[in-house]
Write the structure tokens for this entry.
Amino acid sequence: MPFKVEITSSGHAFQVENGESVLDAALRQGLALPYGCRNGVCRSCKGKIVHGDVRYPSGTPKALTPLDLAQGFALFCQARPQSDMRIDVEEISGAGDIVVRMLPCRVAAKRQLAHDVMQLQLKLPQSERLQFLAGQYVDIVMRDGRRRAFSLANPPHDDEHLELQIRHVPGGTFSGYVFQSLKEKSLLRLRGPLGSFYLRKKDKLPVILMAGGTGFAPIKSIIEDALNEGYPQPMHLYWGVRSRRDLYLHETASRWADKHQNLHYVPVLSEPLPEDGWNGRTGFVHEAVLEDFPDLSGFGVYMSGPPVMVSSGRDTFAARGLDPLHMHSDSFEHAYATGHDNS
Ligand SMILES: Cc1cc2nc3c(=O)[nH]c(=O)nc-3n(C[C@H](O)[C@H](O)[C@H](O)COP(=O)(O)OP(=O)(O)OC[C@H]3O[C@@H](n4cnc5c(N)ncnc54)[C@H](O)[C@@H]3O)c2cc1C
């Protein structure tokens, strides 16, 4: 029988299935409780039990001191409820609530998704997990200390591996290394999570998610997170690329739209090739949004990808009534523009 857990400060409540930890159940139901290692070691998930009982299947974690236990503290990544509960814990409400960390990681898999896009699956050390909000990015820190920003493409609930989608920039130091020399099992260093590009669920607005090229990566994370939680608002995904071969996860996006009535997917090609046989939308992706939505007041808009796409969207959407407070973007500036090249 599932138990009910209520968070005193917010009044949020969620169900914990038999054998499930308090943290896993909260994350599954879209409540962002803090965590770090998810192994009962780092104490990031520590919170107080106001009412109710828990058990620890592998024994009481050593990280909980006798004083912690006497004061009713628990480690929610390990604790399994034995009754309905009320707990005191700080919910993560924005990016600023998550500690930014530097972590080593291993390349668990490298797969070419398109002629110029490589997918990396990164594995953190056994005892570590990276807490992040869907849509955030990490800096890959190179040996000489210079940094390169890449968005996390996996959603937070599916965090065994961290997924990056890296476009090969002609002459690019890091992306060139990824395409030419990086081997599976290689070690990298990352710093994160970073950025404030995440879905403002509390706004409860229908949203337009506009991606250009590998700007699809953070939007994939946001959509998979939203679908996992059952985010009820309409979501309109526009993905702009040059030609058909650049829609490197077209089937994934089409599948989301087939399965979920509130997810609408519009791919837009700016330079379709004759062999594409394309009879879908063409032109610039922000123009496709403008054609479909004459009035953007009452929408949230999320844009990620090339700076020129983001700035075109910013200028033209504001003129269509989009509230600047509901306009969010990650402009994929390169390292020199963002200062990432100076460690
Ligand atoms: C918040 C954020 C998130 C990002 N997420 C992603 C992501 O998920 N996937 C992804 O592929 N990229 C992403 N980027 C862009 C990515 O960081 C850069 O393309 C990357 O730094 C390139 O590094 P490099 O060492 O290969 O190229 P560099 O050696 O730094 O550059 C080589 C040459 O290419 C030019 N150049 C480099 N990057 C770009 C670019 N993006 N556009 C145009 N010219 C460029 C430089 O001016 C230079 O002349 C993101 C950027 C930001 C700011």
